[in-house]
Amino acid sequence: MTISINKLLDLRITKHYSRLRFLYIILFTFSILQLACSPRPNIQGKGADFLQGVWNEDSVAFSDKLNNYTQHHFKFTCDSVYIDLVTHSKVNFYEDSCYNNGVWKEYAKGVYAIKGDTLFVGATFTHANYKQKISGCYRIGRYDKGFLIKNKTSDTLHLESLSDRRDIKLALKEKIICVQKEL
Questions:
Q1: Alpha-carbon radius of gyration of the chain
Q2: How far apart (Å, rounded) are the C-alpha atoms in residues 175 and 75?
Q3: What would the DSSP string read from start to end of 65-104?
Q4: Fold that domain 49-175 belongs to in CATH
Q5: Which of 15, 72, 93, 104 could form a disulfide with 57 if both were Cys (CB 3.0 to 4.6 A apart)?
Q6: C-alpha span between 149 and 130 (Å, rounded)
Q7: CB 172, CB 129: distance < 8 Å
Q8: Domain ranges for the chain
Q9: How far is CA 23 from CA 11, 15, 32, 35, 134, in A?
Q10: Phi and psi of 172, rounded to 5°?
Q11: Cα–Cα distance, 12 to 5 (Å, whole number)
């Protein structure tokens, strides 16, 4: 059994190329992983273009028949949201010093995300200056809400609260251009 020198050389070259190909695949895989696992820039997210701006709920349907209702004011800048909530209540849920004749304001600040047709807001209740609120009248802690985006145009936004199924019809009051900031 003699193996010709050409066959032996072919066998060695094939093994050599096989090893080189394997090495190239490993290097390519590591370079892809390095790019995929590199840290993201420490910068604010862009958010949804159509939401950027100040949105007001000018009126609430059937408000005269409701025991309590809340009017919403949203300000979307990049991926951040600032929320002013004006609550009108015929029933006192709080101590008398907080009731304020049945009308009070609450504030929240946080971030939002859109998945399909749903707007998710993750925020914290704050004081009027948007500094975290840890005590006082009304709600404290987290404001986590989901809203179904029922309809949107360039100057109107129709949402439905996923928690209480109430409609929120917002009108664009001011358009904002997202200028991302460092975190």
A1: 29
A2: 10
A3: G-SEEEEEEEEEETTEEEEEEEEEESS--S-HHHHGGGEE
A4: Lipocalin (2.40.128)
A5: 72
A6: 26
A7: no
A8: 1-38, 49-175
A9: 18, 12, 14, 19, 57
A10: -75, 125
A11: 11
Using one digit for the tens of pLDDT, what is the confidence trace for 7-42? 655 666 666 666 767 766 777 777 676 666 656 678
Identify whether the C-beta of residue 74 lies closer than 8 Å to the C-beta of residue 48: no
For residue 94, give every residue at least 6 positions away whose Cβ sits within 8 Å of its Cβ, in sequence order, or none: 137, 138
Dihedral angle, C-alpha 154, 158, 162, 165, nearest 10 °? 180
The amino acid sitting at 148 is L
pTM of the model: 0.75
pLDDT in tens, 126-177: 999 999 999 988 899 999 999 999 999 999 999 999 998 999 999 999 999 9
* Model pLDDT for residues 60-118, shown as the tens digit of each residue: 988 889 999 999 999 999 999 999 999 999 988 777 888 888 999 999 999 999 999 99
Name the one residue in this structure whose structure tokens are 């273009």. 49
Give the sign of the dihedral formed by CA 92, CA 87, CA 147, CA 81.
negative
Residue with tokens 């951040």: 80
For 57, how many CA atoms within 13 A lie in the half-sphere containing its CB? 22
Provide the token pair at 76: 């979307």
